[in-house]
User: What shape does this take?
Amino acid sequence: MQLYEMTWPAVQSFPKSTPIVFPVAALEQHGHHMPLFTDSLLCGEIIRRVSEMERFQKGVIFAPLQWLGNSDHHLDFAGTLSAPPRTYLDMLIGLAENFLFHGFQRIVFINGHGGNDTPGKQAVFELRQKYRHRDDLLLLFATYWNTAQPTGLKQSHMGHACEWETSMMLRIRPDLVGEISNLPTVPFGNPFEPASRGWITKDRTIAGHIGEPQFATAEKGEYLFSTFADGVAQLLDRVIAWDGRSWNG
Assistant: This one.
């Protein structure tokens, strides 16, 4: 069910164990060849595919995609819009509490932007502390590309405006993708691992992309969409099957 199509009595009538899905993404720079709205377009397509699966059409409520993300690390690139980390964290908490107030028990954020990952995890952690008197809550934050592991691609993991994201955009909006054949590889990596280093995007890349977008194809994009939609669907299956109390479900 799409939240924006429902009346408030319809929402209130749903069982409180109904999963509430909040898709979250961003509007930020994606190099010289990709539009600012890339993360939101890609996450939106994955959620569209999942929401149209027959088993979720009446038993899951999907909220509209939240396009404003935590993108402060991209602010050196024009056009980026960002909610600072604490502001973003509080916004996610507020979204969840809108449903917790009415007794709903299973809140799932499906994320499509790497910069949302840390504040998103902190948001569900803080929510659980605040509502520690309730033992019926399942509060989850999941980034879609961590729900499944694609194989057979040049890159082994998600970058930024990279082979994966560029392929997915070539699948749904090729008109928004610029020339990629001459783009350079911008390597992954952190030479100070296992330490987690504070960084901004221009520390790592001049052009704005990270990875190997020159290897992107629309065929790879369809494979990635299918893989990640299946991964998100399997996560929602586990949310629905949760027994409502235990740690392991």
